[in-house]
From TrEMBL:
Domain of life, per lineage: Bacteria
Active-site residues per Swiss-Prot or TrEMBL entry: 28, 86
Enzyme Commission number: 4.2.3.153
Entry protein name: (5-formylfuran-3-yl)methyl phosphate synthase
Originating species: Crenothrix polyspora
Any Pfam family hit: 4HFCP_synth
The keyword Lyase belongs to this UniProt entry's keyword annotation: yes
Amino acid sequence: MTKMLASVNSVEEALFVLQENVDIIDLKQPALGALGALELAVVREIVATIAKRKPVSATIGDLPMHARLIFNAVQAMAETGVDYIKLGFFPADNWQSIIDQLATLTENSALIAVLFADQQPDMTIIPALKQAGFTGVMLDTMNKKSGSLNQVMTADEIHHFIDQAKQQHLLCGLAGSLSLQSIPDLRQYQANYLGFRGALCNQHIRTGQLNQYAIKQIKLALNRC
Ligand SMILES: O=C[C@H](O)COP(=O)(O)O
């Protein structure tokens, strides 16, 4: 079954989606970018409040591709006790050296690499992620105005991504301005989870308030996947 990841930015929102029984509670500050980070103190508070009732993931922010900066951010996030740490691979030519450095953290932390579908991501990196001990890889979009995942990538490209991730036994997720209407089409990929923020909010405004009806509809549609 394809699970539902819901991105939230506060203790209140985390409790709200917990009550709606989403599968993964993802901590992110949408106002700060595609993978905007929450303050570590807020992350710690949410981890304590959720108290293992659902897995919690968190992003480390839209950081420049500096290996030491990313290493430090991942290490600091790991200390909050989140179950998964999501880090974005933004366009750069040093992905391999970043992956190599992070390999020392994967023994104790579950890392999820986020590749950006609207930035022509280099999917040949997927075996290297596995070799370094990453737990998963997902697609998202960097520019939230560029359209949804299935508008910026062809079905063949998405299938290729899923195949590569599954061949490496990595958890694989899909996100990027997904909506309730995209779910029937996304079913074919059999991803481990689909991630949502904008579609969970009033008027699909990702920095706005969560909408209970929208969350329920998406959860129901995913139950049919
Ligand atoms: O990881 C999932 C994201 O929070 C997706 O955000 P979005 O639906 O606004 O593109």
